[in-house]
Write a structure and sequence with these properties.
alpha/beta, six-stranded mixed β-sheet, 3 domains, six-stranded parallel β-sheet, Rossmann fold, 15 helices
């Protein structure tokens, strides 16, 4: 598949090949007029990110990162007529054109993009620094992949980069302490979550590191930017708690795409086994020397149909686990994985056939409340719902009504829509004012765990390693296309 966006048509290309972290790219330079030159960018992206739900826009992400890389080495700037505020997320028009085609042609597209450079930037090709007029080294003049002229480390005045970690628990610290030794990173841990009320704690830091229930809205982003914070590192894969649109031009945002998909998938199955065979109740009974079996009847998983919504790594691993129990698998994903070996169906069909429905997709505007009253009405009577992804994938009030009516046979929830002020804290001595959560927990056919599916030794080690590596790459000025987040526009 070859996609071309022509912004200007007159050209006699002279190819300048260079290497990038994700493959070979050729840049063709052509003079169009005395006032403006432009580049033709042609690349064939071989590597494809594998993210839960497969909603990740690989081509658009790489283009955005590499445009920034070219800009940082003084090789590119955007046209004078274009201003960041003209677009919702601060991306050049060519980025949107590429993204639209990437969405339509996601499988192995060869993408060619024409975009402008200003006259000042055109001089970079002849060895002139666009901002100062000084001669550039030959390596910087014609090699867009060269190291940035001003390494990020210099911006810290030769001092160690300081990072404020928010929402830190005792089990988080050992992994990070072991990995920062000798790196030059200085970490300060805060148990409190990042929010509008606590953002002041980030003053004096170069970066902040947050988890799933920290609040990084536009107000927090602006405050961080004003304090001089330049990087936001997520200790998780999802970033629905971050206003990525507000971060554009202010904060670089990195995440941990995969830390242990086995941990989450295994926890999902553990919840299913527990709610089905009532082992939680049996454990409590036998501790009281109550050996009655009344009310502990379950059903065989063998021969049942598991509906897997989202076939990224976690979803596919959960499907493999279900196959081990002899279950049939029916999958749904907006972007099916071609090499998964799974049988795909549209969501309405899956809802009608699944005895077990497990959600493994990110939270977006499109997926919010994807399991609502209408979806529940379409479900197979008595089906078990599992959610180990994000709480807002499910309309909680609709779920409660479905449980009451027995349309939903049971629910296994590791996440909850309003969990931010509750989960990860000991509330045993408090009066819980969230009546919805109280109703859920009181139901005998519901199991709620406090967003712990990720919590294994392996996952904690992987999270620490990936987060520290993201911060070090930022400090060194190295691109990180697999972990850097940018706003991808409406899907």
């Amino acid at each position: 598949m070859h996609v071309t966006h022509e912004l200007l048509v007159r050209a006699t290309p002279v190819c300048i090949p260079f290497r990038s972290p994700w493959g070979s790219i050729s840049v063709a330079k052509a003079e169009v007029s005395e006032k403006m030159k432009y580049f033709i960018w042609k690349t064939d992206f071989k590597k494809r990110f594998d993210w839960d739900g497969s909603f990740f826009d690989v081509e658009g992400e790489m283009l955005r990162i590499t445009l920034n890389m070219l800009h940082d080495v003084g090789y590119l700037s955007f046209p004078d007529y274009w201003k960041p505020e003209d677009e919702d997320n601060g991306q050049p028009p060519a980025w949107f054109a590429l993204k639209a085609d990437a969405d339509r042609h996601r499988a192995g597209a060869a993408l060619s993009v024409h975009f402008f450079i200003t006259p000042a930037m055109a001089r970079a090709g002849s060895g002139q620094n666009s901002s100062s007029g000084r001669a550039l080294p030959a390596s910087a003049a014609l090699l867009p992949g060269a190291r940035r002229r001003c390494a990020v480390r210099k911006s810290f005045g030769g001092q160690n980069m300081k990072i404020a970690f928010f929402d830190v628990k005792p089990y988080d610290k050992p992994g990070f302490d072991a990995r920062i030794a000798g790196t030059g990173l200085e970490i300060k841990y805060f148990e409190t979550k990042l929010s509008e009320d606590t953002v002041r704690l980030a003053r004096g830091f170069d970066g902040v590191c947050v988890f799933v229930n920290d609040t990084v809205n536009a107000t927090v982003v602006s405050a961080l930017h004003e304090m001089g914070v330049r990087v936001l590192a997520l200790r998780c894969a999802g970033f629905n708690n971050v206003d990525i649109r507000a971060c554009a031009g202010k904060l670089r945002v990195f995440r941990v795409p995969a830390y242990s998909p086995y941990a989450v998938a295994e926890h999902a199955m553990a919840l299913l086994l527990t709610v089905n065979r009532h082992t939680n109740k049996a454990y409590i009974r036998t501790r009281d020397f109550n050996f009655s079996l009344a009310g502990l009847t379950g059903f065989d998983l063998h021969g049942k149909t598991a509906g897997v919504v989202g076939t990224g790594k976690i979803g596919r691993i959960f499907a493999d686990i279900c196959k081990g129990f002899g279950m049939h698998i029916l999958a749904y994903d907006k972007y099916p994985a071609p090499d998964s070996g799974l049988t795909y169906a549209e969501l309405p069909e899956l809802l009608q056939q699944a005895d077990v429905l497990s959600l493994h997709c990110p939270l977006t505007d499109e997926t919010r409340h994807m399991i609502d009253a209408d979806a529940i009405a379409s479900m197979k009577p008595g089906a078990v719902l599992i959610n180990t992804s994000r709480g807002a994938l499910v309309d909680t009030e609709a779920l409660i009504e479905g449980l009451r009516s027995r349309k939903v046979g049971a629910a296994c929830l590791d996440v909850y829509e309003e969990e931010a002020d509750l989960f990860y804290e000991d509330r045993s001595e408090s009066i819980i004012e969230d009546d919805t959560l109280v109703r859920l927990i009181s139901m005998p056919n519901v199991i709620v765990t406090s967003h712990q599916a990720f919590l294994t030794k392996e996952a904690l080690n992987n999270i620490a390693a990936a987060t520290v590596e993201n911060l070090l790459k930022f400090e060194r000025g190295e691109p990180s296309p697999e972990t850097e987040v940018c706003y991808r526009g409406a899907q």
